[in-house]
Write a structure and sequence with these properties.
The complex is a heterodimer. By secondary structure, chain A is mainly alpha-helical. Helices cover 79% and strands 0% of the residues of chain A. The relative contact order of chain A is 0.14. Chain B is 30% helix and 23% strand. In chain B, strand 8 and strand 9 form a beta hairpin. Chain B has 2 domains: 2-274 and 502-522, Periplasmic binding protein-like II (D-Maltodextrin-Binding Protein, domain 2, 3-Layer(aba) Sandwich); 283-495, Dipeptide-binding Protein, domain 3, CATH 3.10.105.10. The chains are: A mainly alpha, B alpha+beta.
């Protein structure tokens, strides 16, 4: 019963968040520009009547709340609407969403492959030379602007040594460089996260017990310590994944990766309301869903959270 | 929905067993030998172009971008064709004549032309195309307004059509060479409805094969094209907004032709023997327009002239724009109809500028502002250079970024600009009419400040005649008036620079961005 109540409470919160995000986005974009003018920019013969006709075809002459209602009803009935300039939104999302998910997953994998072993090493040798090196390395990683790192990788591994595609969206060879770029940037934070989480668990009494039982160090570290730190690490990375889905736009631009971030950004430039609304709603839903799941899992694992 | 919306990861990722590798090895060998065979059979090969933007829709009546134009000449034909030399020549029409006091234009159509889907091209297709453009379908899009001088299309016989004109339209024949006037197949277009946007069919040398939004559009050669089959087998346009990425793709061999090499990075290619840079004068110009209404500092003609004289256009072009531009004296480049070579740019003369400012009572340290479009970082540098030139004549000028759409929708039309504001303009028609009417005729959207009965009369007069001499004179007169009154600060006409791999043969980039690959081949 209490867990059900907790779930319903969080679900209502999530619905509220999605509502606020979508109505705000729909409202704000309409304040800033007229897509009809964007459409006719290069023509000098356009009359006000032409513009009115175009606006009517775009459905912009209806009251705002009606436009919003039409969008929401359509969206949750599986119709994402039609872009002002680019055909059905579902076609655009059909390219952008898989692209974004593939890149987000690949970057997370790259980051985990690097940050987990390094983080553990740093924690085990706290204060030692390798810890120092890893910490400085992570600081350096944090200071890279991601577009610069992307361009450098492109220069080396695509132009000087032509192993990978420099940009585009064609097969595995084109995902490597963008995934490594984002992976390295993420690693900078994740290494510290793993280190801290491991230090915490390594200081716990059950680790001392495990060691005093005479267990081998490898088993202590990987079976006992890492597993217990995993909850923190996985939770944090889950949230990071949510951020990644919408926040890859700069790297997407550099590598010409056709993801959700670029889709939304283009839509803003062109005042393409349907595309912007649909993509932001989709992103909001995904982030809310990740958060909701994390909350729920927490609630299941730790009854104290439910009480709050 | 069959357009190519997926990419094939996954498939290649998980077959890592030895057997799979072995099988794949055999597959590769077979594929290689097949490729060797086919490369003998088809010498044409594949050419990839990096365009900046994805126009997003391929229907001629729905488009408004130069990016569309750069692709579409390969896919569609108009009644008239205009190539890189900007001369109008017969396209799908073999000839045309003006009848009934120029109220009727008769086109003789080319016989034996086929659309990619096998439909025949004839008078019916022309009538369908223009009725669609001028009817309800066209009313939703931006192209219709360019063709409203046409009253109706009458079929005379299968290969003759008459355009009945509502009013004279001297730019019509040019406009028939591109964009909204591209001829579409009646049956297919009617059947596809909105989906025509995603699966276009025309009569051009290349046939549409697939489109992935934001990624690429691909074509194959159309054997039955009326000019003869193209040399290439495949033509691909990729959409790459980021300039440095386009450059990297060209250097790594991922693409063969790139559009818009950034003018600050031309020297990158100095060391690449296998890449050529091809500059062409673009149809667009850059300028600062001025607030000429009562109360603004720039309402005084002496101030406006001083501003024009205080800026060293040549130095800006040389130092910031890679030398890839020409100073202009009116808001058009040398390729434009209405251009007057005898009209000279205000000479750079800071002393005289200072004197004029003093005469106008403008004290040293007077503040002014330039509005520029915030996303345009190249122009920002130019604007900064201008502020330092103006500082040298005693003006304290700051630059004010304005978001693109806000500038077009609100700031300019409603006359909310500061003393100087960025204006870049130009149309693919290369006819000054488009620019001049919009910027100088009173009451036009992008003309918040200028009201001149004489300019209005000249602009209206030249719109109502097909007489080229009379039109040219009127347009030149408008340009001269603007120059004498120093209504604007015309800056420069820039080149568009293409980067071209040396494996590409027989390709000539066009000044109007409309690329045409009929005779192009690759090594």
């Amino acid at each position: 019963m209490p867990i059900a109540k907790f779930a319903i409470q969080r679900l209502l919160q999530a619905v509220f968040v999605v509502f606020v995000v979508t109505i705000f986005v729909a409202f704000a974009i309409r304040l800033t520009g007229d897509p009809a003018i964007m459409l006719v920019q290069e023509s000098s013969n356009v009359t006000e009547a032409d513009l009115e006709r175009i606006r009517a075809a775009m459905g912009l002459n209806k009251p705002f709340l009606v436009q919003y209602k039409d969008f929401i009803l359509g969206f949750f009935n599986g119709d994402m609407g039609t872009s002002f300039f680019r055909g059905p939104v579902s076609n655009l999302v059909a390219v952008a969403l898989p692209a974004t998910l593939a890149l987000a997953v690949a970057s997370m994998v790259v980051s985990m492959l690097i940050s987990i072993p390094l983080g553990i090493r740093a924690a085990l040798h706290k204060g030692g030379l390798s810890d120092q090196i890893i910490r400085i390395g992570s600081l350096v990683g944090l200071s890279f602007p991601n577009f610069w790192l992307g361009l450098m990788l492109m220069m080396v591994f695509s132009i000087k040594i032509p192993i990978f595609n420099s940009s585009g969206y064609e097969g595995p060879a084109s995902i490597v460089l963008p995934a490594v770029t984002i992976g390295i940037i993420l690693t900078a934070t994740n290494v510290r996260l793993v280190r801290t989480a491991m230090l915490e668990t390594l200081g716990a009494q059950y680790i001392m017990v495990a060691r005093s039982k005479g267990l081998r160090e490898r088993i202590v570290v990987y079976k006992h310590a890492l597993r217990n730190s995993a909850i923190t690490i996985v939770t944090y990375m889950g949230l990071q994944f949510g951020n990644l889905v919408g926040g890859l736009v700069v790297v997407e631009m550099v590598f010409n990766w056709p993801g959700m971030g670029s889709l939304a950004l283009d839509a803003i430039y062109q005042r393409d309301y349907p595309v912007l609304q649909a993509s932001i709603t989709l992103l909001a839903l995904m982030i809310v869903a990740v958060n909701f799941t994390v909350d729920l899992v927490y609630g299941l694992l730790d009854p104290r959270i439910r009480v709050e | 929905m069959t357009f190519n919306g997926k990419c094939n990861f996954g498939k290649n990722y998980n077959s890592r067993s030895r057997k799979a590798n072995l099988k794949r090895g055999v597959g590769v060998v077979t594929a290689l030998s097949l490729m060797a065979l086919s490369s003998v059979a088809q010498a044409g090969g594949k050419l990839t172009v990096a365009q900046v933007r994805d126009p997003g829709s391929w229907d001629p009546i729905d488009t408004f971008t130069l990016a569309w134009g750069s692709v579409a000449s390969n896919l569609f034909d108009g009644l008239v064709y205009r190539g890189p030399d900007l001369k109008l020549v017969p396209g799908l029409a073999t000839s045309w004549e003006f009848l009934d006091n120029e109220s009727r234009i008769r086109f003789k159509l080319r016989e034996g032309v086929q659309f990619h889907n096998g439909e025949p091209f004839n008078a019916e297709a022309v009538k369908f195309t223009f009725e669609r453009l001028l009817g309800d379908e066209g009313a939703k899009g931006p192209q219709r307004s360019n063709y409203t001088s046409i009253e109706q299309i009458k079929i005379v016989d299968d290969y003759t059509v008459d355009f009945i004109m509502k009013r004279p339209d001297p730019v019509l024949i040019t406009k028939l060479a591109g964009y909204g006037a591209m001829i579409v197949p009646p049956k297919y277009t009617a059947k596809m409805g909105e989906e025509f946007n995603l699966k276009p069919v025309g009569t051009g040398p290349f046939k549409f094969t697939s489109y992935t939004p934001s990624v690429k559009i691909t074509f194959e050669k159309f054997e039955d094209h009326w000019r003869g089959a193209p040399k290439l087998d495949e033509l691909v346009y990729r959409f790459i907004p980021e300039a440095s990425t386009r450059m990297a793709e060209l250097q790594s061999g991922g693409v063969d032709v790139i559009y818009k090499v950034p003018l600050g990075s031309l020297s990158v290619f100095d060391t690449h023997d296998n890449i050529e840079l091809a500059p062409v004068a673009s149809p667009t110009i850059d300028s600062l327009r001025l607030k000429t209404t009562e109360g603004a500092l720039t309402s005084d003609i002496r101030v406006r002239k001083a501003l024009n004289m205080a800026i060293d256009r040549n130095a800006i072009i040389e130092s910031l724009l890679g030398g890839q531009g020409k100073p202009i004296s009116s808001l058009q480049g040398a390729g434009s109809f209405g251009y007057d070579a005898s009209l000279e740019t205000y000479e750079y003369d800071p002393k005289k500028a200072k004197a004029l400012l003093a005469e106008a009572g403008v004290k040293p340290g007077t503040k002014m502002t330039i509005d520029y479009r915030s996303a345009d970082s190249d122009f920002r540098e130019v604007a900064l250079a201008i502020t330092s030139y103006l500082r040298m004549v005693g003006l304290e000028v700051k630059i004010n970024p304005v978001e693109n759409s806000v500038m077009s929708k609100d700031v300019i039309p409603n006359g909310k600009t500061h003393e100087m504001y960025q204006f870049g303009w130009g149309g693919w028609t290369f006819d000054f009419d488009n620019t001049a009417y919009l910027l100088y005729h009173s009451g036009e959207r992008y003309n918040p400040y200028i009201k001149s009965a004489k300019m209005d009369a000249l602009l209206e007069k030249q719109r109502l005649t097909y007489d080229r001499e009379l039109r040219e004179e009127a347009l030149q007169e408008v340009a001269r008036m603007a120059h004498e009154q120093a209504l604007d600060i015309p800056l420069y006409n820039l080149n568009t620079v293409y980067g071209i791999s040396s494996r590409v043969k027989n390709f000539e980039p066009a000044p109007d961005d409309r690329l045409f690959f009929l005779n192009t081949s690759v090594e």
